[in-house]
Amino acid sequence: MSQPQPRYEPPKPWLKLPPREVLACIAIVSVLATILYPVIRQAQDMARQVSCLSNVRSRSGALLQYATDNDNSLPPASQWQTASSRYLKEEKGPCPAISPPAPDVLGYAMDSRLSGRSLERIGAPHDQRILLYESSKLTQDAHDPGISFVVRHGYGTITFVDGHSWGRKQEPGEQLVRKGTL
């Protein structure tokens, strides 16, 4: 005798919800997404700020190492990027606010008034003299006497000759850089 063939039964949905409850679930998920999106966006912005500050701090540390190896003299401003690259363990990228990133573009500039100068001959106290800063110039080895300073991602990132760096939120109408220091 042959065995009877089992009848085909379509798969049963594992959860039966009325349309009203499905709409309620969708509404709850959309409210949660609306609440979480700004928080996630803020976390991404903070990560970019920290990355930018880390990049400029590493570059300035490399420039100070260069100066130590070269009779306490900073490199020529037209070659600061190349000079600092030799002292970095891993290549630091551009400011994360620059998109799309282009090759050899950092978004930072060196104060050209410090070009080739000895650290002992820099006039202002080292904790007030700016070495690297965020710049609107997007060329390799960007340098100028501070006129291209720009605030990206709401913070101005600056590194001083003594090696400390800061990124401070700009308040409306506030100048981040005092006259005489940049």
Describe this structure in words.
With 182 residues, the chain is α+β, with helices and mostly antiparallel strands. The protein has one domain. It contains two helices and five strands. The protein has helices spanning 19-69, 80-85; strands at residues 108-111, 130-134, 143-144, 155-160, 165-169. Strands 3-1-2-4-5 form a five-stranded mixed sheet, with helices on one face. Strand 4 (155-160) and strand 5 (165-169) form a beta hairpin. It starts with 18 loop residues before the first helix and ends in a 13-residue tail after the last strand. The model has no long low-confidence stretch (mean pLDDT 82).
Keywords:
182 residues, alpha+beta, five-stranded mixed beta sheet, 2 helices, 31% helix, elongated
> What's the count of strands?
5
Sheet bearing the most strands, described?
A: 5 strands, mixed
Q: Could you estimate the helical fraction of the residues in percent?
A: 25-40%
Average residue pLDDT:
82
The low-confidence runs, each spanning 5 or more residues with pLDDT under 50, are none
Strand proportion: 5-15%
Spatial strand sequence of the major β-sheet: 3-1-2-4-5
Judging from the principal axes of the Cα atoms, what is the shape?
A: elongated
**Derived structural class:** alpha+beta
Number of domains: 1
Q: How many helices? A: 2
Query: How would you spell out the order of helices and strands?
Result: HHEEEEE
Task: Note the gap between the termini.
Answer: 99 Å
Task: Compute the CA-based radius of gyration.
Answer: 27 Å
